[in-house]
Amino acid sequence: MVHDVAIIGAGIIGTSLARELTRYKLKVVILEKLPDVAMGATKANSAIVHGGYAEGHETLKGRLCFEGRRRFRELEDELKFGFSETGSLLVSLDDDLEPLERLLESGIRNGLDDLSIIGSEEIRKLEPNITQEVKNALLCKGAGICSPYGMAIAMAENAVENGAEIVLSAEVTGIESENEILNLVTDKGDFQASFVINCAGVNSDKVARMAGADGFEILPRSGEYLLFAKGTGKLLDHVVFQLPTAMGKGVLVTPTIHGNLLIGPDASEIDDREDTSTHAERLENVYNQAKKLYPDIDGETFLRSFTGIRARSSTGDFLIGPSNIKGFINAAGIQSPGLTASPAIARMLVGILEKEGLKLEPENSFNPFRKVVEYSPKDLPYREVDRLSKLPAGSRERIVCRCEQVTEGEIADSMERGIAVTTVDGIKRRTRAAMGWCQGAFCRARIAETMERLTGELPDGSYDIERSGVSRVGKHDFLDFLKARKEE
Ligand SMILES: Cc1cc2nc3c(=O)[nH]c(=O)nc-3n(C[C@H](O)[C@H](O)[C@H](O)COP(=O)(O)OP(=O)(O)OC[C@H]3O[C@@H](n4cnc5c(N)ncnc54)[C@H](O)[C@@H]3O)c2cc1C
């Protein structure tokens, strides 16, 4: 079969595009090299729905950010992935208003109407725990936070419900063009399509080269984070940024959509695009910068560290558009604010496809709503959690993960939403099992056993972060490192 559109990569860009395309009578397939969707930059970022003032209007990043942000409320209503308009504050610790005024003007040029500069008194009313040293801030009322992997999973599930096909563990290793049809060679066989969209994130230059559509490079840049225990997000109500630097937006402090505190990222140019290890020195720098803004951040509540890899393009901007190879279209170099811009990028790509000759006939049966995902109450008293966790295996009420109070029924449901879930981390991203205080020490084996009972197959452990061989600084090592530093 020749597909109308084949999408390479199931991050937020590939999945959003697939869903957008299912509004039309089209045969759409996503080919993803890893065993789940959202396993690239989409799962490891700051999860901020940016205001849209930080990038200039002359860039695609600047023009598409606010356009994307404006669609989040509607998308959340349809797909229920987790989004909250917390507002953001870009704070300055000195009296010079000029950098904030410049960003305010940039925002106005990008169409924003919810920006204002406020002084220390107002900032402290909004953020009582922020440092006394804060002087001024740029407030963006409509910025917010979301679950980025939750959003990509929701996009993918809804796209599949509307007829798109997703092939996981299908790395594209070759692209040939013949008679205006592109042939994609993958681990799961060949796929033909009239149009191919390159949404391969940090590998998008390699994929473009396969097609003969090169001309840009990805210069990967990593960012490390510290995530704190559930409940610690109460320290603040807004996303709080510092003034951006040449390397990026700087270390931010934010609550996550699930109530954790998140700080980071730093920025470092790297050679190995797959290297998501973390380092005590870099985390220390993130920690110290964040503590300058919020002195009450408590290292004892540290939960885990992680790294995201930015797919920075050699042009410094998003690269979205047709290439010299007919039918091959790039959506490459999608670094921050790519998550925020993703709804706008998806629409832009549909427009490009139409211009390039794809016929768009509306599909009247398109259903924008994802199957309702219902979760049980998460604040049960300990005795009840203990009782439910001892129920016999096979009972839907049995609690599998005690920290996040996730039941066997929720795990089963998450596996029945159109995308095969074959890893424990896949369950984690869908239900939050193993995301709590014990980080899976109690439930990892119970999740695997539940999955085996439901599918007849033991999940593939090699893609779970704990077993992947990636070295990540843990809580005790980090606290020991900080202590040793103090004693130096
Ligand atoms: C540290 C950091 C912080 C960020 N913070 C924010 C933020 O707060 N707000 C915001 O708006 N944006 C943020 N971003 C940007 C945002 O995360 C990205 O723009 C977005 O996730 C990019 O999505 P993507 O689909 O292009 O790439 P990815 O999510 O990386 O997806 C690409 C996919 O392609 C697959 N793939 C690669 N090669 C092949 C192949 N040969 N065959 C098949 N599949 C392949 C990969 O496995 C992967 O799943 C941040 C990014 C980073 C790294």
From TrEMBL:
Q: What is its EC number?
A: 1.1.5.3
Keywords assigned: Oxidoreductase
Give the signal peptide as a residue range, or say none if absent: none
Does this UniProt record's set of keywords contain Oxidoreductase? Answer: yes
Q: Where is the BFD-like [2Fe-2S]-binding domain?
A: 399-452
Query: What InterPro entries does this protein's entry cite?
Result: BFD-like_2Fe2S-bd_dom, BFD-like_2Fe2S-bd_dom_sf, FAD-dep_OxRdtase, FAD/NAD-bd_sf, G3P_Oxidase/Oxidoreductase
Q: Per the UniProt record, which residue ranges are transmembrane?
A: none
Q: Which domain of life is it from?
A: Bacteria
Q: Name one GO molecular function term.
A: glycerol-3-phosphate dehydrogenase (quinone) activity
Q: Where is the FAD dependent oxidoreductase domain?
A: 4-350
Class of the enzyme per the UniProt entry, highest EC level:
oxidoreductase
Q: Which PANTHER family match?
A: GLYCEROL 3-PHOSPHATE OXIDASE (PTHR42720:SF1), GLYCEROL-3-PHOSPHATE DEHYDROGENASE (PTHR42720)
Protein known as: Glycerol-3-phosphate dehydrogenase
The record lists the organism as Youngiibacter multivorans
